[in-house]
Specification:
This protein is α/β, with parallel strands linked by helices. Helices cover about 25% and strands about 35% of the residues. It is built from 8 helices and 20 strands. The strands form 2 sheets. Strands 2-1-5-8-10-12-14-16-18-20 form a 10-stranded mixed beta sheet, covered by helices on one side. Helix 1 (about 5-25) runs antiparallel to helix 2 (about 35-45), helix 2 (about 35-45) runs antiparallel to helix 5 (about 140-145) and helix 7 (about 395-410) packs antiparallel against helix 8 (about 415-439). The chain is globular.
Length: about 450
Protein backbone atom coordinates (compact mmCIF):
# COMPACT_ATOMS: atom_id res chain seq x y z
CA UNK A 1 0.00 0.00 0.00
CA UNK A 2 1.40 3.36 -1.01
CA UNK A 3 2.17 5.76 1.85
CA UNK A 4 0.85 9.28 1.71
CA UNK A 5 3.52 11.98 1.77
CA UNK A 6 3.53 14.65 4.43
CA UNK A 7 3.90 18.06 2.72
CA UNK A 8 5.21 19.66 5.91
CA UNK A 9 7.90 17.01 6.36
CA UNK A 10 8.76 17.20 2.66
CA UNK A 11 9.09 20.98 2.81
CA UNK A 12 11.20 20.75 5.97
CA UNK A 13 13.58 18.34 4.25
CA UNK A 14 13.74 20.56 1.17
CA UNK A 15 14.62 23.56 3.38
CA UNK A 16 17.55 21.67 4.92
CA UNK A 17 18.79 20.58 1.50
CA UNK A 18 18.38 24.08 0.05
CA UNK A 19 20.21 25.75 2.92
CA UNK A 20 23.10 23.29 2.49
CA UNK A 21 23.20 23.95 -1.24
CA UNK A 22 23.03 27.74 -0.83
CA UNK A 23 25.80 27.61 1.77
CA UNK A 24 28.10 25.85 -0.68
CA UNK A 25 27.49 28.57 -3.27
CA UNK A 26 28.56 31.45 -1.04
CA UNK A 27 31.74 33.35 -1.78
CA UNK A 28 34.96 33.22 0.24
CA UNK A 29 34.16 36.48 2.02
CA UNK A 30 31.45 34.73 4.04
CA UNK A 31 33.23 31.44 4.79
CA UNK A 32 34.04 32.64 8.32
CA UNK A 33 30.30 32.23 9.07
CA UNK A 34 30.26 28.53 8.11
CA UNK A 35 30.15 27.37 11.73
CA UNK A 36 27.20 29.63 12.54
CA UNK A 37 25.36 28.44 9.43
CA UNK A 38 26.09 24.81 10.19
CA UNK A 39 24.82 25.20 13.76
CA UNK A 40 21.63 26.89 12.59
CA UNK A 41 21.03 24.25 9.94
CA UNK A 42 21.56 21.47 12.48
CA UNK A 43 19.10 23.10 14.89
CA UNK A 44 16.49 23.58 12.18
CA UNK A 45 16.91 19.98 11.00
CA UNK A 46 16.08 18.81 14.52
CA UNK A 47 12.89 20.87 14.77
CA UNK A 48 9.45 20.21 13.39
CA UNK A 49 7.61 22.85 11.45
CA UNK A 50 4.74 24.33 13.46
CA UNK A 51 1.23 23.06 12.86
CA UNK A 52 -2.15 23.92 14.35
CA UNK A 53 -1.20 21.65 17.26
CA UNK A 54 1.69 24.00 18.10
CA UNK A 55 0.24 26.45 20.64
CA UNK A 56 2.22 29.47 19.40
CA UNK A 57 1.02 28.80 15.84
CA UNK A 58 -2.46 27.56 16.64
CA UNK A 59 -4.23 30.28 14.68
CA UNK A 60 -1.62 30.77 11.96
CA UNK A 61 -1.37 27.87 9.49
CA UNK A 62 1.85 27.94 7.50
CA UNK A 63 0.32 26.35 4.40
CA UNK A 64 1.15 29.46 2.28
CA UNK A 65 4.84 28.82 3.11
CA UNK A 66 4.79 25.05 2.61
CA UNK A 67 2.80 25.27 -0.63
CA UNK A 68 4.43 28.45 -1.88
CA UNK A 69 7.14 26.95 -4.14
CA UNK A 70 9.46 29.57 -2.65
CA UNK A 71 12.70 27.64 -2.13
CA UNK A 72 14.90 29.48 -4.54
CA UNK A 73 17.23 32.39 -4.07
CA UNK A 74 17.57 35.31 -6.43
CA UNK A 75 20.76 37.27 -6.59
CA UNK A 76 20.10 39.62 -9.47
CA UNK A 77 19.71 43.33 -8.99
CA UNK A 78 16.88 45.35 -10.43
CA UNK A 79 16.69 49.07 -11.04
CA UNK A 80 12.92 49.12 -10.73
CA UNK A 81 12.70 47.48 -7.31
CA UNK A 82 10.33 49.22 -4.89
CA UNK A 83 11.94 51.96 -2.84
CA UNK A 84 11.64 52.71 0.83
CA UNK A 85 10.32 55.84 2.46
CA UNK A 86 11.63 59.10 1.03
CA UNK A 87 13.20 61.32 3.64
CA UNK A 88 16.38 62.57 5.22
CA UNK A 89 17.77 59.15 6.16
CA UNK A 90 20.88 57.11 5.85
CA UNK A 91 19.79 54.17 3.71
CA UNK A 92 20.83 50.55 3.44
CA UNK A 93 19.07 48.08 1.14
CA UNK A 94 18.61 44.34 1.27
CA UNK A 95 17.61 43.41 -2.27
CA UNK A 96 16.87 39.72 -2.89
CA UNK A 97 18.65 39.12 0.40
CA UNK A 98 21.80 40.78 -0.93
CA UNK A 99 23.13 43.80 0.93
CA UNK A 100 23.69 46.91 -1.17
CA UNK A 101 25.89 49.92 -0.57
CA UNK A 102 24.97 52.38 2.16
CA UNK A 103 25.30 56.15 2.27
CA UNK A 104 26.22 56.32 5.93
CA UNK A 105 28.97 58.80 6.66
CA UNK A 106 28.67 59.53 10.33
CA UNK A 107 31.33 59.43 13.02
CA UNK A 108 28.78 58.02 15.51
CA UNK A 109 27.65 55.16 13.30
CA UNK A 110 29.30 52.09 11.84
CA UNK A 111 27.49 49.95 9.26
CA UNK A 112 29.49 46.83 8.42
CA UNK A 113 28.27 44.25 5.88
CA UNK A 114 29.19 40.76 7.05
CA UNK A 115 30.79 40.11 3.66
CA UNK A 116 33.28 42.96 4.02
CA UNK A 117 34.02 42.78 7.76
CA UNK A 118 37.69 42.84 8.70
CA UNK A 119 39.10 40.78 11.56
CA UNK A 120 37.88 43.25 14.19
CA UNK A 121 34.42 43.42 12.60
CA UNK A 122 34.19 39.64 12.38
CA UNK A 123 35.13 39.34 16.05
CA UNK A 124 32.44 41.86 17.00
CA UNK A 125 29.81 40.08 14.90
CA UNK A 126 30.71 36.70 16.40
CA UNK A 127 30.49 38.21 19.89
CA UNK A 128 26.82 39.13 19.39
CA UNK A 129 25.40 37.06 16.54
CA UNK A 130 22.70 34.63 17.65
CA UNK A 131 23.15 35.43 21.33
CA UNK A 132 19.72 36.98 21.98
CA UNK A 133 17.54 33.95 21.36
CA UNK A 134 17.16 30.23 21.61
CA UNK A 135 16.77 29.09 18.01
CA UNK A 136 15.23 25.82 19.18
CA UNK A 137 12.13 27.83 20.19
CA UNK A 138 11.90 29.73 16.91
CA UNK A 139 12.00 27.40 13.88
CA UNK A 140 12.05 30.17 11.30
CA UNK A 141 14.81 32.00 13.16
CA UNK A 142 16.74 28.72 13.08
CA UNK A 143 16.09 28.49 9.33
CA UNK A 144 17.40 32.04 8.98
CA UNK A 145 20.55 31.08 10.88
CA UNK A 146 21.04 28.00 8.71
CA UNK A 147 20.72 29.99 5.50
CA UNK A 148 22.70 32.99 6.71
CA UNK A 149 24.12 34.88 3.76
CA UNK A 150 25.09 38.50 4.05
CA UNK A 151 23.97 40.66 6.94
CA UNK A 152 24.54 44.06 8.45
CA UNK A 153 26.18 45.01 11.72
CA UNK A 154 25.03 48.42 12.93
CA UNK A 155 27.04 49.85 15.77
CA UNK A 156 26.41 53.17 17.50
CA UNK A 157 29.41 54.33 19.46
CA UNK A 158 29.38 55.11 23.15
CA UNK A 159 27.65 58.35 24.21
CA UNK A 160 26.90 59.37 20.63
CA UNK A 161 23.95 59.75 18.30
CA UNK A 162 23.74 59.47 14.52
CA UNK A 163 22.91 62.72 12.76
CA UNK A 164 20.06 61.07 10.82
CA UNK A 165 17.82 58.03 11.26
CA UNK A 166 19.00 54.89 9.45
CA UNK A 167 16.53 53.20 7.11
CA UNK A 168 16.99 49.56 6.09
CA UNK A 169 14.86 48.73 3.06
CA UNK A 170 14.00 45.05 2.53
CA UNK A 171 12.87 44.42 -1.03
CA UNK A 172 13.10 42.01 -3.97
CA UNK A 173 12.82 41.81 -7.76
CA UNK A 174 9.46 42.60 -9.28
CA UNK A 175 9.44 39.81 -11.86
CA UNK A 176 10.25 36.14 -12.22
CA UNK A 177 9.35 33.12 -10.13
CA UNK A 178 8.54 32.97 -6.45
CA UNK A 179 11.62 33.22 -4.25
CA UNK A 180 12.80 33.67 -0.70
CA UNK A 181 15.31 35.84 1.17
CA UNK A 182 16.81 35.52 4.63
CA UNK A 183 17.95 38.90 5.88
CA UNK A 184 19.88 39.41 9.09
CA UNK A 185 20.38 42.68 10.98
CA UNK A 186 22.54 42.97 14.09
CA UNK A 187 22.34 46.20 16.12
CA UNK A 188 24.72 47.13 18.94
CA UNK A 189 24.01 50.41 20.73
CA UNK A 190 26.79 51.14 23.18
CA UNK A 191 26.29 52.78 26.57
CA UNK A 192 24.72 56.21 26.48
CA UNK A 193 24.23 56.10 22.69
CA UNK A 194 21.03 56.71 20.71
CA UNK A 195 19.69 55.31 17.44
CA UNK A 196 16.60 55.76 15.30
CA UNK A 197 16.17 52.78 12.95
CA UNK A 198 13.52 52.17 10.31
CA UNK A 199 13.10 48.73 8.82
CA UNK A 200 10.84 49.03 5.80
CA UNK A 201 9.48 46.03 3.87
CA UNK A 202 8.08 47.13 0.53
CA UNK A 203 7.48 44.21 -1.83
CA UNK A 204 4.17 45.33 -3.27
CA UNK A 205 4.21 43.42 -6.58
CA UNK A 206 2.24 40.32 -7.53
CA UNK A 207 5.08 37.81 -7.52
CA UNK A 208 5.22 35.75 -4.35
CA UNK A 209 8.20 36.40 -2.08
CA UNK A 210 8.97 34.77 1.25
CA UNK A 211 10.97 37.03 3.55
CA UNK A 212 12.32 35.34 6.65
CA UNK A 213 14.16 37.97 8.68
CA UNK A 214 15.89 38.24 12.05
CA UNK A 215 16.87 41.48 13.77
CA UNK A 216 18.91 41.31 16.96
CA UNK A 217 19.32 44.37 19.19
CA UNK A 218 21.72 44.87 22.10
CA UNK A 219 21.18 47.98 24.20
CA UNK A 220 23.97 48.75 26.66
CA UNK A 221 23.38 50.71 29.85
CA UNK A 222 21.54 54.02 29.44
CA UNK A 223 21.25 53.68 25.67
CA UNK A 224 18.11 54.42 23.64
CA UNK A 225 16.71 53.02 20.42
CA UNK A 226 13.53 53.89 18.55
CA UNK A 227 12.68 51.18 16.05
CA UNK A 228 10.14 51.58 13.24
CA UNK A 229 9.14 48.23 11.71
CA UNK A 230 6.89 48.90 8.72
CA UNK A 231 5.65 45.77 6.97
CA UNK A 232 4.04 47.13 3.84
CA UNK A 233 4.31 44.16 1.48
CA UNK A 234 1.49 43.30 -0.90
CA UNK A 235 -1.35 40.82 -0.48
CA UNK A 236 0.61 37.88 -2.02
CA UNK A 237 3.67 38.22 0.15
CA UNK A 238 4.75 35.89 2.94
CA UNK A 239 6.74 37.21 5.85
CA UNK A 240 8.09 35.66 9.03
CA UNK A 241 10.14 38.12 11.04
CA UNK A 242 11.69 37.97 14.49
CA UNK A 243 13.02 40.86 16.57
CA UNK A 244 15.07 39.96 19.65
CA UNK A 245 16.06 42.73 22.06
CA UNK A 246 18.36 42.60 25.10
CA UNK A 247 18.34 45.64 27.37
CA UNK A 248 20.71 46.57 30.16
CA UNK A 249 20.27 49.00 33.04
CA UNK A 250 18.57 52.30 32.28
CA UNK A 251 18.17 51.57 28.57
CA UNK A 252 15.01 52.31 26.62
CA UNK A 253 13.65 50.49 23.57
CA UNK A 254 10.65 51.73 21.66
CA UNK A 255 9.08 50.04 18.64
CA UNK A 256 6.42 51.37 16.33
CA UNK A 257 5.10 48.54 14.18
CA UNK A 258 2.76 48.83 11.24
CA UNK A 259 1.58 45.92 9.11
CA UNK A 260 -0.76 45.64 6.21
CA UNK A 261 -1.97 42.18 5.39
CA UNK A 262 -0.26 39.57 3.26
CA UNK A 263 -0.88 35.93 2.38
CA UNK A 264 0.79 35.27 5.73
CA UNK A 265 2.54 37.79 7.93
CA UNK A 266 3.96 36.70 11.26
CA UNK A 267 5.97 39.01 13.52
CA UNK A 268 7.60 37.83 16.76
CA UNK A 269 8.93 40.58 19.05
CA UNK A 270 10.87 39.44 22.10
CA UNK A 271 12.28 41.88 24.66
CA UNK A 272 14.41 41.03 27.71
CA UNK A 273 14.72 43.68 30.43
CA UNK A 274 17.97 42.49 32.00
CA UNK A 275 19.11 45.59 33.93
CA UNK A 276 17.43 47.75 36.56
CA UNK A 277 15.44 50.76 35.35
CA UNK A 278 15.28 49.48 31.79
CA UNK A 279 12.06 50.29 29.96
CA UNK A 280 10.37 49.39 26.71
CA UNK A 281 7.36 50.54 24.76
CA UNK A 282 5.74 48.52 21.96
CA UNK A 283 3.16 50.14 19.72
CA UNK A 284 1.56 48.40 16.78
CA UNK A 285 -1.17 48.73 14.17
CA UNK A 286 -2.27 45.97 11.79
CA UNK A 287 -4.75 46.17 8.92
CA UNK A 288 -5.94 43.00 7.18
CA UNK A 289 -8.59 42.70 4.46
CA UNK A 290 -9.51 40.27 1.67
CA UNK A 291 -8.13 36.89 2.74
CA UNK A 292 -5.01 38.35 4.32
CA UNK A 293 -3.51 37.10 7.55
CA UNK A 294 -1.47 39.06 10.12
CA UNK A 295 -0.07 37.64 13.35
CA UNK A 296 1.79 39.58 16.07
CA UNK A 297 3.38 37.61 18.90
CA UNK A 298 5.13 39.65 21.58
CA UNK A 299 7.02 38.55 24.68
CA UNK A 300 8.45 40.89 27.32
CA UNK A 301 10.67 39.33 29.97
CA UNK A 302 11.00 41.39 33.17
CA UNK A 303 14.18 39.84 34.55
CA UNK A 304 15.55 42.74 36.66
CA UNK A 305 13.70 44.87 39.24
CA UNK A 306 12.36 48.41 38.72
CA UNK A 307 11.68 47.98 35.01
CA UNK A 308 8.74 49.34 33.03
CA UNK A 309 6.99 47.98 29.93
CA UNK A 310 4.08 49.41 28.00
CA UNK A 311 2.38 47.75 25.04
CA UNK A 312 -0.50 48.87 22.83
CA UNK A 313 -1.62 47.11 19.63
CA UNK A 314 -4.68 47.96 17.58
CA UNK A 315 -6.05 46.17 14.53
CA UNK A 316 -8.77 46.58 11.94
CA UNK A 317 -9.88 43.51 10.01
CA UNK A 318 -12.06 43.66 6.94
CA UNK A 319 -13.52 41.18 4.39
CA UNK A 320 -12.39 37.65 5.24
CA UNK A 321 -9.15 38.85 6.76
CA UNK A 322 -7.70 37.26 9.89
CA UNK A 323 -5.51 38.65 12.64
CA UNK A 324 -3.81 37.18 15.66
CA UNK A 325 -2.37 38.97 18.66
CA UNK A 326 -0.59 37.10 21.43
CA UNK A 327 1.12 39.28 24.01
CA UNK A 328 2.97 37.74 26.94
CA UNK A 329 4.54 39.54 29.89
CA UNK A 330 6.68 37.40 32.16
CA UNK A 331 7.65 38.89 35.54
CA UNK A 332 10.55 36.90 36.98
CA UNK A 333 10.91 36.20 40.70
CA UNK A 334 13.59 38.87 41.26
CA UNK A 335 11.83 41.52 39.17
CA UNK A 336 10.27 43.36 42.12
CA UNK A 337 8.78 46.82 41.58
CA UNK A 338 8.03 45.99 37.95
CA UNK A 339 5.36 47.89 36.10
CA UNK A 340 3.74 46.38 33.00
CA UNK A 341 0.70 47.41 30.98
CA UNK A 342 -0.59 45.67 27.85
CA UNK A 343 -3.61 46.48 25.73
CA UNK A 344 -4.97 45.06 22.48
CA UNK A 345 -8.04 46.47 20.70
CA UNK A 346 -9.60 45.14 17.52
CA UNK A 347 -12.24 46.39 15.15
CA UNK A 348 -14.03 43.93 12.84
CA UNK A 349 -15.62 45.62 9.85
CA UNK A 350 -17.46 42.55 8.51
CA UNK A 351 -19.09 39.46 9.92
CA UNK A 352 -16.53 37.31 8.10
CA UNK A 353 -13.50 39.04 9.59
CA UNK A 354 -11.74 37.17 12.39
CA UNK A 355 -9.36 37.98 15.21
CA UNK A 356 -7.83 35.81 17.91
CA UNK A 357 -6.37 37.78 20.79
CA UNK A 358 -4.61 36.40 23.83
CA UNK A 359 -2.93 38.73 26.34
CA UNK A 360 -0.99 36.83 28.99
CA UNK A 361 0.55 37.80 32.33
CA UNK A 362 2.86 35.40 34.13
CA UNK A 363 3.96 36.83 37.48
CA UNK A 364 6.39 35.34 40.02
CA UNK A 365 7.20 38.52 42.01
CA UNK A 366 4.84 39.85 44.67
CA UNK A 367 5.48 43.61 44.51
CA UNK A 368 4.47 44.58 40.99
CA UNK A 369 1.93 46.67 39.13
CA UNK A 370 0.55 44.88 36.07
CA UNK A 371 -2.52 45.19 33.88
CA UNK A 372 -3.70 43.79 30.60
CA UNK A 373 -6.81 43.89 28.47
CA UNK A 374 -8.22 43.05 25.07
CA UNK A 375 -11.33 44.11 23.18
CA UNK A 376 -13.02 43.03 19.96
CA UNK A 377 -15.85 45.10 18.54
CA UNK A 378 -17.54 46.59 15.50
CA UNK A 379 -18.32 50.12 14.42
CA UNK A 380 -21.02 51.64 16.56
CA UNK A 381 -24.30 52.00 14.62
CA UNK A 382 -25.28 54.95 16.82
CA UNK A 383 -22.05 56.73 15.95
CA UNK A 384 -22.61 56.08 12.24
CA UNK A 385 -26.18 57.40 12.57
CA UNK A 386 -24.92 60.48 14.43
CA UNK A 387 -22.55 61.34 11.57
CA UNK A 388 -25.25 60.74 8.94
CA UNK A 389 -27.74 62.90 10.83
CA UNK A 390 -25.29 65.77 10.33
CA UNK A 391 -24.99 65.33 6.58
CA UNK A 392 -21.93 63.07 6.48
CA UNK A 393 -22.32 60.09 4.18
CA UNK A 394 -22.20 56.61 5.65
CA UNK A 395 -19.02 55.77 3.75
CA UNK A 396 -17.28 58.93 5.01
CA UNK A 397 -18.44 58.18 8.54
CA UNK A 398 -17.15 54.63 8.20
CA UNK A 399 -13.79 55.93 7.05
CA UNK A 400 -13.53 58.59 9.79
CA UNK A 401 -14.34 56.16 12.59
CA UNK A 402 -11.84 53.61 11.28
CA UNK A 403 -9.16 56.26 11.09
CA UNK A 404 -9.89 57.48 14.60
CA UNK A 405 -9.67 53.95 16.00
CA UNK A 406 -5.97 53.47 15.23
CA UNK A 407 -4.62 56.97 14.69
CA UNK A 408 -3.79 57.50 18.37
CA UNK A 409 -1.18 54.72 18.05
CA UNK A 410 0.21 55.76 14.67
CA UNK A 411 0.44 59.40 15.77
CA UNK A 412 3.24 58.45 18.15
CA UNK A 413 5.59 57.99 15.20
CA UNK A 414 7.82 61.04 15.51
CA UNK A 415 9.42 60.72 12.07
CA UNK A 416 6.93 62.69 9.99
CA UNK A 417 7.66 61.00 6.67
CA UNK A 418 7.19 57.56 8.23
CA UNK A 419 3.91 58.67 9.76
CA UNK A 420 2.74 60.13 6.45
CA UNK A 421 3.74 56.95 4.62
CA UNK A 422 1.66 54.65 6.81
CA UNK A 423 -1.23 57.13 6.85
CA UNK A 424 -1.42 56.93 3.06
CA UNK A 425 -1.46 53.12 3.12
CA UNK A 426 -4.04 53.11 5.89
CA UNK A 427 -6.24 55.55 3.99
CA UNK A 428 -6.48 53.09 1.08
CA UNK A 429 -7.54 50.41 3.53
CA UNK A 430 -10.21 52.67 5.08
CA UNK A 431 -11.55 53.51 1.61
CA UNK A 432 -11.83 49.83 0.69
CA UNK A 433 -13.61 49.13 3.96
CA UNK A 434 -16.03 52.00 3.44
CA UNK A 435 -16.80 50.90 -0.12
CA UNK A 436 -17.50 47.32 0.98
CA UNK A 437 -19.67 48.50 3.86
CA UNK A 438 -21.84 50.70 1.66
CA UNK A 439 -21.96 48.49 -1.47
Amino acid sequence: MATQSNPYADFHRQCVEASQSWSEQLGDSLRWLDDARSEGRSLFAGLELPTRKTEAWRYTPIAPIVQGDILRLRTTESADAPQGIAGDFYTLTFHNGQLGASNTDDSALEVIPFSSADAAGQALIKEYLGKTFDAAKHPFAALNAGTLQDGALIRVKKDSKALKPLQIVHTADVSGEAASSYNRVLVVVESGAKLELLETYVDTHERKVFQNTVTEVFLAANSTMTHYALNCEGANQIHTGCVFVEQHGGSHYEQHAFATGGALKRRDINVKLLGQLASCKLNGVYLAGGREHVDFHTTIEHVAPHCVSEETYKGIINGKGKAVFNGRVHIHRDAQQSSAAMNNNNLLLTNTAEVNTKPELEIYADDVKCAHGATVGQLDDMALFYFQSRGITRSDAHRMLSRAFVESVMAEMEIETAHAYVLELAERFYNEGAQEATA
